[in-house]
Amino acid sequence: MHIGNAFETLFLNGRRYEVHPVCADLQAKILQCYRQNTHQTLSCSALANQYLHCVNHAKQVGVPARPLQAGAE
């Protein structure tokens, strides 16, 4: 089997899942904070800490992938 065909078989034709970023609200807040405080990024450390805790919690709990709904592609 050619490598290109194997890739298509495994990844393009396989079952697809929705991907939702974890802690997206905190991610948006921390990015906004970094943009507003380009020379004082330490002022965003509390948000960064909350974000890290949120991500670590999501890793421990596990966020299940959900199959795409028909017609959602």
UniProtKB/TrEMBL annotation:
The record's InterPro entries line, in alphabetical order, gives:
MICOS_subunit_Mic19
Q: Name one GO cellular component term.
A: MICOS complex
What GO terms in the biological process aspect are recorded for it? inner mitochondrial membrane organization
Name the PROSITE patterns for this protein. CHCH
PANTHER family attached to this UniProt entry: COILED-COIL-HELIX-COILED-COIL-HELIX DOMAIN CONTAINING 6, MICOS COMPLEX SUBUNIT MIC19
Kindly provide the name given to this protein in its UniProt entry: Coiled-coil-helix-coiled-coil-helix domain-containing protein 3, mitochondrial
